[in-house]
Structure formats: C-alpha cells, structure tokens
C-alpha cells in the first residue's frame, strides 16, 4: 500500500517541484534585472543605458520568451501554442530592440570619449551576440509566416530555431557574466553579492538548456514509438 501511494505521489511531487523552480526562475530574472537597474541608474549617463538595456534584453525578455514554452509553467501551460508563439515573438522583438539600443549607447559613449571599440571579451562576445540574435530572429520568420518556408519542413525549421536559440541564449548569458567582471560593476559589487549576481544568468542558462534539450529529446522518443 505504501509503495503504491509513493508511486502515485511522485509524479505530483515532481511536477510541483518543477513548477516551484520555474516560478523561482521568473523571480530571479526580475530581481537580477532590478539589481542591475539600481546599479546602473539608467538616465544618469549615456553609459548607464548600456547595462540596463542589455540586462533587460537577455536576462528578462529573452528568458521569458523561451520559458513561455515550458511545460511546467502553470498557468501559462494552458495557453494555446499559437498564443505562446505570438507572446514569444513580442518578447523577442523587445529583446532585439533593447539589445540594439544598448549596443548603440555603448558605441556612441565610446565614440564621444575617444575610446577604442571591442577591446575586451565582453565587447567582442556582446557584438557577436547582437548579430546572432538578429539573424536568428530573421531566420525564424517562416515559422511565423509559413508561406515563406518554400519547401522547408516546419518541423525541421523548429528544431533549427530551437538549437540556434539555445546557442544565442548561451552567448547572451556569457556576455552578461563577462559584463559583471567589468571595472564599472566590480567597483560597487563585491564578495558574495557578486557571486550571487553571476549565479542568476548561470541558473537561467542551465534551465533553458535542459528545457530545450529535454523537449526535443522527448519529441524524438514519441516519434520513434509512433513508427
């Protein structure tokens, strides 16, 4: 009797724990974005818009754009796939817009101060991330407008989009962490506070990788069983 009850309760406990962790992840994204916003004080200088906008783009908008497809995101999981896709595109559009403005802010700030561009790993990887996220968004247009696919399988395009999206998100996460090592951030955030801040994008990246890889692995398993 006890073993039977445990077997019945395990899936429920598993689902609850996954949902609780996902809720925590949403909170982490918001708290991290607010923390960087307080540190940068957007509007206090031209440079201040760069960390604010880039954190808003990749820590909040892009993370939420991917998490909206999580199977554990109650009550989001009750939305139709079409609705989720529309919300995903809106959030991705906000992500790209903020990223472009963030890069423009740091570029113009360096131009005004006569400083060289792309002199750090953070700068190089950040510029690469911007190009990749724009190309990845443009390449995904056939998923929003199937008439543009022209012979391509939508299922295959979705797999490519998921794989490139995971790569883009990882690039963005690494760029955020590298930004935390800058002289600007380390001047005011030190010790345990710095490690907690760096842990935020790392935890989100780990979950995103697991969500995408698990989702497509399970789909392949179902497809094999149905053959």
TrEMBL record:
Q: Which cofactor does it need?
A: heme b
Which keywords are on file for this protein? Answer: Electron transport, Heme, Iron, Membrane, Metal-binding, Transmembrane, Transmembrane helix, Transport
* CDD domains (UniProt xref): Cyt_b561_CYB561D2_like (cd08761)
| Origin superkingdom | Eukaryota
**What Gene Ontology terms describe where this protein resides (cellular component)?**
endoplasmic reticulum; membrane
Q: Which GO terms describe its molecular function?
A: metal ion binding; transmembrane ascorbate ferrireductase activity; transmembrane monodehydroascorbate reductase activity
- Residue intervals passing through the bilayer: 20-38, 50-69, 89-108, 120-145, 166-186, 192-210
In the Enzyme Commission scheme, what number(s) does this protein have? 7.2.1.3
Q: Does the keyword ATP-binding apply?
A: no
Principal subcellular localization: membrane
Q: Which InterPro entries would you find in this protein's record?
A: CYB561D1/2, Cyt_b561/ferric_Rdtase_TM
Q: Which residues form the Cytochrome b561 domain?
A: 16-219
Q: Where is the signal peptide?
A: none
Q: How does it sit in the membrane?
A: Multi-pass membrane protein
Classification via Pfam families: Cytochrom_B561
Tell me the compartments it is located in.
Membrane
Q: Kindly provide the name given to this protein in its UniProt entry.
A: ascorbate ferrireductase (transmembrane)
């Amino acid at each position: 009797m006890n073993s039977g009850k445990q077997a019945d309760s395990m899936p429920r406990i598993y689902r609850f724990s996954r949902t609780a962790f996902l809720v925590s992840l949403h909170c982490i994204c918001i708290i991290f974005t607010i923390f960087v916003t307080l540190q940068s004080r957007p509007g206090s200088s031209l440079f201040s818009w760069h960390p604010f906008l880039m954190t808003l783009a990749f820590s909040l908008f892009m993370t939420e754009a991917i998490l909206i497809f999580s199977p554990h995101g109650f009550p989001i999981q009750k939305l139709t796939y079409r609705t989720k896709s529309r919300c995903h595109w809106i959030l991705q559009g906000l992500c790209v817009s903020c990223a472009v403005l963030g890069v423009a802010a740091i570029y113009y700030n360096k131009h005004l101060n006569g400083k060289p561009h792309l002199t750090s790993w953070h700068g190089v990887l950040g510029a690469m991330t911007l190009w990749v996220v724009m190309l990845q968004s443009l390449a995904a247009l056939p998923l929003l407008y199937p008439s543009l696919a022209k012979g391509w399988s939508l299922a295959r395009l979705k797999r490519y989009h998921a794989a490139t999206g995971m790569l883009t998100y990882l690039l963005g996460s690494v760029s955020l962490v590298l930004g935390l090592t800058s002289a600007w951030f380390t001047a005011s955030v030190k010790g345990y506070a710095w490690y907690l801040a760096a842990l935020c994008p790392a935890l989100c990246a780990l979950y995103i990788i697991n969500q995408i890889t698990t989702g497509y692995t399970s789909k392949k398993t179902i497809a094999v069983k149905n053959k």
